[in-house]
Specification:
Length: about 300
């Protein structure tokens, strides 16, 4: 998402919250003096609706954490993997330790086999203090993270060190083999790709040693990584970055342009991209404006069969 200072958006929100009630009160006081057919009452109604949307989107919707499950069928060998994805937490100006603890509890309640932290974990260096909650994550196959563009702006080394101190392993152009879930099933590998914008996404390094016939689950922050994944025999790519648009309108979708190049239709959810299934989680945090509208914070749980 765009890197705008949060205080600028907060200033705009404060002006809207203060100005609209004053405008409505002024109209009420002068109601008898308004000319017949005046459009000012109509504009007042629009202003109130806009005011309600700003208040709800800024202070209510971002606090409604949801857990949504997605069935992902990739084969019929009987293998099953339950993956929880937590992305774009953006700890710092808007959310911190209390929100992190809520996210950890909700993730554990979903009983995943594997937990993925899909980048943009912080917006400011102070936000890394919320990582202490990550010690509470529980998943038999571990907790794994990749880095996003905001993590690099804060400091990739700092973020990785803080994650390691709470038991979260980072996958930066690295692959690990998961335990066999079905006897005689092809090997299952989890592969983490570095951020495409601020890092160095080295696919050759990441895939070195991964058998050609292996089942490959790739985690990358940006959905744009699917272009390379599709030509490298990747069955499933997991990404974040888009926030699902963060602020959406019914029948319209995201009101701001998504920071991806593969196409604006790839906003959130499960897609087919050539031979690869692409899943994009809307994430649980906010950047730029503190608001979410018609795009609640979401922990995505993939019920993968293959």
């Amino acid at each position: 998402m765009p890197l705008f200072p949060g205080w600028q958006f907060d200033a705009v929100i404060a002006v809207i919250i203060a100005a609209v009630p004053l405008y409505v009160v002024e109209l009420w006081v002068k109601r008898k003096k308004l000319a017949l057919g005046s459009m000012r009452p109509f504009f007042a109604v629009l202003a109130v609706v806009f005011w309600l949307a700003v208040v709800y989107g800024s202070f209510i919707a971002p606090r409604f954490l949801t857990v949504k499950e997605y069935p992902v069928a990739l084969g019929e060998t009987g293998a099953h993997l339950r993956v929880a994805i937590v992305s774009d937490m953006h700890f710092g100006p808007y959310k911190g330790l209390a929100w992190a603890e809520k996210v950890v509890r909700a993730t554990n309640d979903a009983q995943p086999d594997l937990i993925i932290l899909d980048g943009d974990l912080v917006t400011t260096a102070a936000g890394t203090a919320a990582f202490s909650a990550f010690r509470g994550f529980r998943a038999p196959l571990g907790v794994w993270a990749v880095l996003g563009n905001y993590d690099y702006r804060v400091g990739a080394v700092t973020v990785r060190e803080r994650l390691g101190s709470v038991g979260v392993k980072t996958l930066v152009n690295r692959a690990i083999q998961l335990p066999d879930v079905v006897e005689d099933h092809p090997q299952t590998w989890l592969i983490g790709i570095d951020d495409m914008e601020y890092g160095h996404d080295d696919w050759d390094k990441a895939l070195a040693g991964v058998p050609d016939n292996a089942f490959r689950i790739v985690v990358a922050h940006s959905p744009d990584a699917v272009r390379t994944a599709e030509v490298n025999n990747v069955q499933l790519l997991i990404a974040g970055h888009t926030h699902g648009g963060q602020i959406r309108l019914p029948l319209v979708g995201p009101i701001a342009r998504l920071p991806i190049s593969i196409g604006q239709e790839y906003d959130q959810g499960l897609f087919r991209y050539g031979r690869t299934q692409l899943f994009i989680t809307p994430g649980v945090g906010e950047s730029g404006p503190r608001a979410r509208l018609f795009s609640r914070p979401e922990i995505s749980v993939l019920d993968v069969t293959y």
